[in-house]
Every structure is written in structure tokens, then in C-alpha cells.
Amino acid sequence: MTTIFFAALVASAQPLPAIKIDAVPGKGFSATVAKIDADQYDPVVDCIKVLAEQRCGAKKVRFGRYFFDNQIDVERGVTVIKDFRQAFTCYDPATDPYKPVPADWKAGATEVTAATRFAQRFVDNLDAGNGALLAKLMDPQLEPTVAEMKRFSDEAKMHQTGRANFRCGSMAG
Fold first, then answer.
1. Alpha-carbon distance 50 to 68, whole Å?
2. Alpha-carbon distance 91 to 74, whole Å?
3. Which of 24, 46, 77, 124 shows its CA 20 to 30 Å from the CA of 31?
């Protein structure tokens, strides 16, 4: 009985949509899919992972930014994902700038100071709405834009009341 149910389920499943892999000069690759039913999202992402590994060969895969729009297909009563895009790059672990650290690693005073300065710079620019500098502070794999980071700042401040800012314990004056 289980075999019959499984066979019926497989027979009724929609085939996965076409996945296109394009080289993006200076950035790696982009996997795109025109349209996915929401229940196909996980299988499509799994397939993209396999295709990326094949494309990278002996190198490792690092996934970056992804994007999609969604809408409801009213006639079928399902969510549809449109214009799905997943960026990825291939890298050699021997030359990877993101080096792994031991599980028991603890930050020293120098690292804590540097991280605190970075976080404060980020928050100061979030307060100021400086989308250009916020975009520069983000990891390039995320492909941040000035407009997106300005919107992020505006949305982060949307519900502030009074004169407070993002700096812990401070008041704008």
C-alpha cells in the first residue's frame, strides 16, 4: 500500500522548473528560476546546491545573496515564487580570506576593540541614514546597494519615539 501511495505521489508531482546558471563577471555565478510553486522551493534550492557544486568542481561553494518575488495564484490557491535568483562563488579553501577558527577560540582585547569600533561605526551611520557607508560596511557577497541600506536605516528608525538613537544609553540632543 505504501509503495502505491508513493508511486502516485511521485507521478502527481510537478517536474522542477528550469534552472539557469550564468557566469557573472567578477562576482561568480547566478542561478535563476523564472517561476516556482512554493512547494517546489526546497527541491529547487537543493538542485541549485548540486549544480553549484558541479560548476565549482574541486573548489568549494559559497552562496551569497538571493532574491525573489512572490504572489498568490488565485486560480490554483497557491503561492508562486517568481524571478528567483541565488548568487554563488567558487573558492579555494587554501586562499579563502574567511579562515576557520578553532571551536574554543576566544576574542582578545584587540579583536573586541576592533569589533566594537566597527559596530559603533555601523550604528552611527544607521542613525545618520548614510546608506552609502552602510553598504560599504556590509560583506560584498550580500551585494548591498545604497538604496537598500538607506531603506534599512529608515525602516529601523520608523518606530523610534523621542530623541533616542541607536547608541546604547545615549540621547540625541
1. 20
2. 43
3. 77
Residue-level length of the chain: 173
Q: Which three cell numbers stand for residue 34?
A: 523564472
* 110-148 CB burial, b ≥16 within 10 A, e <16: eeeeeeeeeeeebeebbbeebbeebbeeeeebeebeeee
In sign, the C-alpha dihedral spanning 42, 47, 50, 55 is negative
**Tens digit of pLDDT for each residue in 110-147?**
999 999 999 999 999 998 999 999 999 988 777 888 99
Query: What pLDDT, on the 0 to 100 scale, is given for residue 167?
Result: 59
Q: Given a cut of 90, is residue 99 above it in pLDDT?
A: no
**CA 114, CA 11: separation in Å to the nearest integer?**
57
The pLDDT value recorded for residue 165 is 60
User: Do 46 and 33 form a contact (C-beta atoms < 8 A)?
Assistant: no
Sign of CA pseudo-dihedral 24, 28, 33, 37: negative
Q: Which three cell numbers stand for residue 138?
A: 556590509
